[in-house]
Amino acid sequence: FGKYGSNPKTKRSKRFLESRAPKLVEDGKSAMIMKGGNTSQLISNVLKDIVSKPIEFFSKKTDCSLFLFGSHSKKRPDNLILGRLFDFHVLDMIELGIEKFSSLSDIKASKCPEGTKPMLLFAGEAFDTDNEHKRLKSLLIDFFRGPNVSAVRLAGLEHVLHFTSLDGKIYMRSYRSLLKKSGCRTPRIELEEIGPSLDLVLRRTHLASDDLYKLAHRKPKALKAKKKKNISHDAFGTKFGRVHMQKQDLSKLRTRKMKGLRKRKGRAAVGEQDGPAPKEARVAS
To answer: What is the b/e burial string over 230-258, where b = at least 16 CB atoms within 10 angstroms of the residue's CB?
Structure first.
């Protein structure tokens, strides 16, 4: 149980230690949202909108692996710091500046129902090539993915969070997907902006080393899928299996006997030795 000690004196302390102990399947991530001692009204509105979205943050307890800190100063106005922890130590921190903001109340549109799991979309080459943007993408996924679920109903896929990286800036947009009539069985999909909307600029980063980052993502052996022989999957997840069979002697293969395939008496010798019988012989028989 690490720094909490290994000899709890009460059942309550034992339960507390067990809740903090490592698990094969970790609990869903929760976040602390903090406002600095000196903040602007814009930062307060951003934090208020983020905490009001029901799909991101479900726990108010201190057992949080994510944090969001808002502050404002002359040197760094309208500042947001996103971060996460590993083993109670800071793993990554990324500082973002807010250049433009539209709140939920500014965009007049019907919102998604509570508990809707979002679809996260990332556009921009930097998310795949630049190391800082890669970490930012991973951090944003941790913040907005919501709880792990085994299945999602098709009608529930109506919330879209879109992040675009362009010229050193990050554009965050929130949409609601609408199913429209298309004249055929497949509906036409339109996106309606519901807010909040943020234009961000990447300022400073504090990233974990590659070794520590790899350690934080390591899976326990008990959760690793065992590799099965002769089974493979394609890019779409289709499962293929290879079956090995012993060599078969087709001459001994037993087939169904039919009357039309039986040889008639008097034709067997002609058919097997001299080929097809002449016309006269076929008529005579």
So the answer is: eeeeeeeeeeeeeeeeeeeeeeeeeeeee
